[in-house]
């Protein structure tokens, strides 16, 4: 099976590499030429346009920043929709607004092209290991048919419902991650200001109820002051925008998420938008005069 792969960034590049390793033939594209060259060196073909890739592949995976980029690549001029034959499947693994997924799904279905919204969680380390968590919306029969392709990149691939449901699950994930990083930051700042070594506090509490995947990933980064992304603040702001738009749409107040959004906006103003979301701690350092 030939697979198209569009978007070879922090996440897409290792995901595409894992598909090559698993023996799939890839046709790739990205605006960033060095990433394309890296895949080419591993044996991938390079597409000349999104439509060109779609004309050559049964499945096209997209891993792009947000809704506008996915809409442009899939539905725009020379986009996937122009090259794809009926029966082609687009697996969009980007994190985008559920409403945008449903719009793209409807436009593609008119041409008998199917869309799965299949965003991921786990960050760059799990993308490299091929142990991501994938949450999928769309037609169940399409999910079943392409489960094995997604499983190459993931430890878990879970069907959550109709089109857009995958991205609703991803928004829920992003709420938990954002609030958890803030909680870890507050705890480590408290330890420091109270005169106890934050690393020893981390060692003491990580095995208890407070322990979490977020704590394991982010507490060491915070203590080492390593804010290299990873997952950029800018992308998390994008996700929380999608969260708040969705929650306002369904009439659910999310007061803590709204507050963490303000914290992220504040550190973005300080020039941290391109840093890892672990840099949320800088907001608290400022408040605590550290
Ligand atoms: P990234 O910015 O590193 O990668 C995006 C890639 O898309 C870039 O290489 C860019 O050149 C390419 N691109 C943009 N527009 C394009 C276009 N029109 N045509 C072709 N290529 C185009 O971002 P990332 O961190 O890899 O994230 C990708 C998606 O995955 C985002 O939706 C993000 O929210 C989500 N995500 C990221 C992480 C993480 O830890 N980085 C974790 C889970 C989910």
Please give a handful of descriptors for the protein shown:
binds nicotinamide-adenine-dinucleotide, 6-stranded parallel β-sheet, EC 1.1.1.60, 290 residues, Tartro_sem_red, 14 helices, N-(1-d-carboxylethyl)-l-norvaline Dehydrogenase, domain 2, NADP binding, 56% helix, 2-hydroxy-3-oxopropionate reductase GarR
Instruction: Give, in spatial order, the strands making up the sheet with the most strands.
Output: 3-2-1-4-5-6
- CATH topology of the largest domain: the name is Rossmann fold
Q: What form results from the Cα inertia axes?
A: globular
Q: Please compute the radius of gyration using only Cα atoms.
A: 20 Å
Q: Compounds present? A: nicotinamide-adenine-dinucleotide
Count every beta strand, where a strand is a DSSP E run of 2 or more residues. Answer: 9
Structure description:
InterPro entries: 3-OH-isobutyrate_DH-rel_CS, 6-PGluconate_DH-like_C_sf, 6PGD_dom2, 6PGDH_NADP-bd, HIBADH-like_NADP-bd, HIBADH-related, NAD(P)-bd_dom_sf, Tartro_sem_red. Belongs to the HIBADH-related family. The protein is of the alpha/beta class and 290 residues long. The chain folds into 2 domains: 2-162, NAD(P)-binding Rossmann-like Domain (Rossmann fold); 168-287, N-(1-d-carboxylethyl)-l-norvaline Dehydrogenase, domain 2, CATH 1.10.1040.10. Helix content is 56%, strand content 14%. It contains 14 helices and 9 strands. The protein has helices at residues 12-21, 33-41, 50-56, 67-75, 80-83, 98-109, 123-129, 140-151, 165-193, 198-205, 213-224, 233-250, 255-272, 281-287; strands spanning 2-6, 25-29, 45-46, 59-62, 89-92, 114-117, 120-121, 132-137, 154-161. The strands form 2 sheets. The protein has a 6-stranded parallel beta sheet, with helices on both faces. Strands 7-8-9 form a 3-stranded mixed beta sheet. α2 (33-41) links the parallel β2 (25-29) and β3. α4 runs parallel beside α6 (98-109), α9 crosses α11 and α12 (233-250) packs antiparallel against α13. It is globular and about 65 Å long. The N and C termini lie far apart (55 Å). The structure holds nicotinamide-adenine-dinucleotide (NAD). The site of nicotinamide-adenine-dinucleotide has 27 residues, from α4, β7 and α7.
């Amino acid at each position: 099976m030939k697979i198209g792969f569009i978007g070879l960034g922090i996440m897409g590049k290792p995901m595409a590499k894992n598909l090559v390793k698993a023996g799939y033939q890839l046709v790739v594209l990205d605006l960033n030429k060095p990433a394309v060259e890296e895949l080419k060196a591993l044996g991938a073909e390079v597409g000349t346009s999104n439509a060109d890739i779609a004309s050559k592949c049964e499945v096209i995976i997209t891993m792009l920043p947000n809704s506008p980029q996915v809409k442009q690549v899939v539905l725009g001029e020379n986009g996937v929709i122009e090259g794809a034959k009926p029966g082609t499947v687009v697996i969009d693994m980007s994190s985008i607004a559920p409403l945008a997924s449903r719009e793209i799904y409807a436009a593609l279905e008119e041409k008998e092209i199917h869309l799965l919204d299949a965003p991921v969680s786990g960050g760059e380390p799990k993308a490299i290991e091929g142990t991501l968590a994938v949450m999928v919306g769309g037609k169940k029969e399409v999910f079943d048919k392409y489960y094995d392709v997604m499983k190459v990149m993931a430890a878990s691939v879970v069907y959550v419902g109709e089109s857009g449901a995958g991205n609703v699950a991803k928004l829920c994930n992003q709420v938990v991650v954002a609030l958890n990083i803030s909680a870890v930051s507050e705890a480590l700042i408290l330890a420091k200001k109270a005169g106890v070594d934050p690393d020893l506090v981390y060692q003491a509490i990580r095995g208890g109820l407070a322990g979490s995947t977020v704590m394991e990933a982010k507490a060491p980064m915070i203590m080492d002051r390593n804010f290299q992304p990873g997952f950029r603040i800018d992308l998390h702001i994008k996700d929380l925008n999608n969260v708040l738009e969705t929650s306002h749409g369904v009439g659910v107040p999310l007061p803590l998420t709204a507050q963490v959004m303000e914290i992220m906006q504040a550190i973005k103003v300080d020039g941290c938008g391109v840093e890892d979301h672990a840099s949320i701690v800088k907001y608290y350092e400022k408040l605590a005069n550290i």
